[in-house]
């Protein structure tokens, strides 16, 4: 099999963001572009000679081609074995699990997560390490440095491998092992959760609807929810992964999962609704007429996880990303648990999970997970909710009402301004940063600033420092706002504004109404409307 060493040169803009490298699919399809970045991964991590890697993706457009290219490049650089999901499919949490249970040296996951897919939409690639988690900041920096120094890439010139049949096929000196993408993951879920109780709940007439949004969790949810737990056939909708996600955004929030929201608020609403994103690591939870925000979901799971067998011994601690609401902090305080606030992105939870300092982690962007893998995990969150409901025998709305009665309610919302001009976004943030020292004490609308900082994080395990992770403004009276730019957008810049306000007694307000003073205060401080020319955010979650 001829080995090709192809001369290449650095490509500007191959800097991985919050979750690997994301670009328009057509950018990835340019000759040599994907190859350049894959070789940069191999170079950045010090080579893959003799290694075992896991490979798979969410099935979006170009997944099939990319998997074949990466297999040939792994063989050309001396990998011993690549474990790949059948047809090139693996959800992000299932890939994380496979890396761990197979003792692999790392893995490559193909996905742009919740971004739409197709030739004119988005594609992405990320490298995960031997613990199953996203590359740390340090490794990400090495991959980026390699992408700036690259001179050549290596690839085998050979025909494609058939990835539809399970089993082993040699590729040069490397072994390609095609595995069932669901089996090992489903086995892990059976260990963590009380499938018997959940089955009994479903037999009692409890109805659920899981919307896989035409993305990767379809096969996982059909196997686990319908086949193993006995949910009625058809409970999982949009269950067949499609390269363009049926033309939609596989983003599990009330905006993009509007069909699920409509079903859960309709006359014949099921008892429980859930959805997951393109690569299966995000989740959305909704009860009959009752949407649960991701920040509240994290708090409820932290308060009740001990009801599931996998967490019966209690939690070692909890962690949230800094912009995630402080609802979970109240649970941690009440239960005497450690609580960490990290920068945005799952990679910052890795050390806390590895060191046994945190058991449960979550982000406001619909990501929740635990130490069972090193990624957030959509179906896991759904199963933990079902396990809790099966034990409590309460509706989602009752669980929320009791939770707020015990801990109070933190009203929370995120406002996204998408595809704004990069220079406008950058100057908004840099002007805001410049103004931070003068902010404390300053009035902003009906509120006044208590503290203002550019969030920096020192990892308590390895001491590494991440700076400039978002502007955090606390107001007198306890409200808080965070502003940061997205690291995963592929068009212009996306400004994210995170808003919260605690209320200890009134739990039934509309969040946008409850947050109105915070929204006005942020605009007074940052000048969002005047600078961007946008009267409203593009997406409110
Ligand atoms: C977004 C979310 C962040 C999440 C990241 C990856 O990043 O805000 O919480 O970790 O996406 O999620 P940003 O930089 O655009 O705000 V996904 O489901 O890759 O996998
Ligand atoms: Co995702």
Number of domains: 3
Helical region count?
A: 18
Question: For the largest beta sheet, what order do the strands appear in spatially?
Answer: 2-6-5-3-4-9-8
Helix vs. strand class: alpha/beta
| End-to-end separation | 52 Å
Report on this model:
The structure is a single chain. The protein starts with a strand and ends with a strand. It has 3 domains: 3-181, 3-Layer(aba) Sandwich (Alpha-D-Glucose-1,6-Bisphosphate, Chain A, domain 3); 185-407, Alpha-D-Glucose-1,6-Bisphosphate, subunit A, domain 3 (Alpha-D-Glucose-1,6-Bisphosphate, Chain A, domain 3), CATH 3.40.120.10; 409-540, TATA-Binding Protein, CATH 3.30.310.50. It is an alpha/beta fold and 541 residues long. Helices cover 33% and strands 26% of the residues. The mean pLDDT is 96. Bound molecules: alpha-D-glucose-1-phosphate-6-vanadate and cobalt (II) ion.
